[in-house]
Amino acid sequence: MRYTKITFLSMLLFLSVFIFSCSDNDSSAPVYEEGTNEYVNEWMYQQMKRYYLWNTSMSQKGSLSIFPQDYFAGLLEKGDRYSYAVHPELPETAGQSLRRKFGFDVSFFEFEAKYYAVILYVLEDSPAKRNGLKRGQLITKVEGTPLNQNNYDELYLKMTSASQLNIQTVSYTAQTGFSNLKEVSILQGYTFSQPVKYTVIEDKSKKIGYVEISHFDVGQAQLFLQTFQELKNKSITELVVDLRYNGGGDIASAAALSIILAPDIQSGSLFIKFEGNTNGGKVDQSFKEALAGNESKISFEALRGAHPSINKVYILCGKHTASASELIINNLKPYMEVITIGDKTFGKDVAGFPIEDDRISGKKGWTLYPAIYKIFNSRHEGNYSQGIDPLISVNEIQQPEVFPLGNSSEILLAKALNSITGNTAKTFSPSVKCFPISVNKSDTDFLIIH
């Protein structure tokens, strides 16, 4: 997963409302020696007083001598799960997660009195993928230690903090049982751009498009255009979009997808409402304006041309569905029927942009990621900080066999297909007891605004 660095020169849509400067401090601010905690924390305080959504309830300035990350945390509103600060030269300040370090996600379950970590998602071109991990494999040992009821959460934390991961995996199918025991060693590394995967499923004379999107990257509109033009050419009449492992990203990318999906919209139709503090004010953006924020090569009209013959969309979601993915769910509702299937989403209903301390020439300083705006749809619906409840609640882990994404037997997709075709076939009773791990906020991204 990549961070997207956005300069303030690109925030053209907001210049008519207010002017922000990342490096300017109040003229009355004291002057401290460069590089000291006081120097950094004074800057942090001034930026937060200017930009932070909840700036009026911030604590007093307090001691400026403490470590900047701790100082930043002390400024946050109680219950703020979104805002964070990182330093590029201090890796320990960045969030620790399997997804960011190795490129995969897991959850835990108990089956026949034994504990397993099931691999839920593997990013393409990631350390995990390059070492052969795939969805559905079960982890039985971490650093030689078998998982059990008393240590699975401790071993998970060990995995997230490691730079090299040594695990034992096993495969499982209902037909063959457990097989293919392997020892796997993975070094922490980079994960690169993700593809948009799709397939067409034909069932009861219906052509159903299934699209899996793992992140909303800058410049993804071209990929969406190509994908949905191909689906349109295949004459799909129903659509399932899988966002269950999509932690968010770029708002213009999310707008591009929304333009393709929503029926009967115009370029000037209202897409998103931002509400900030008294400095930020309120900003409304149409579909076209939101797209133009970071997608200059693809037009609104081109994206509309790829709109398939649909008037509703099925969205697969879960606790990893956050930020721009939740925006898709909430902000399409005024324009089309949105049927969500899965688990409650993460609950990130705020937007922001990175604020970099670039006061020292040639040296990168702290970068702040504060919550700056609450976001709403065109009907002023939002306030989903506790997550969005799915219309159809389904746990994707019910059996020890977990099918690949896009497979018609996969739990959430099967539920969507049954809803589309009217199939009322009974599902199997769960045979596992799940122990999900809380999502790290570093696995989710802000809606980056421009």
Automatic annotation (TrEMBL):
Keywords: Signal. PROSITE patterns: PROKAR_LIPOPROTEIN (PS51257). GO terms for molecular function: endopeptidase activity; serine-type peptidase activity. The keyword Signal applies. Gene3D superfamilies: 2-enoyl-CoA Hydratase, Chain A, domain 1 (3.90.226.10), 2.30.42.10, 3.30.750.170. Residues 179-395 form the Tail specific protease domain. SMART domains: TSPc. Pfam families: Pept_S41_N, Peptidase_S41. It comes from the Bacteria. Residues 1-21 form the signal peptide. Coiled coil: none annotated. One of its GO terms (cellular component) is outer membrane-bounded periplasmic space. The keyword Signal applies. One of its GO terms (biological process) is signal transduction. This is Peptidase family S41. It comes from Flavobacterium johnsoniae (strain ATCC 17061 / DSM 2064 / JCM 8514 / BCRC 14874 / CCUG 350202 / NBRC 14942 / NCIMB 11054 / UW101).
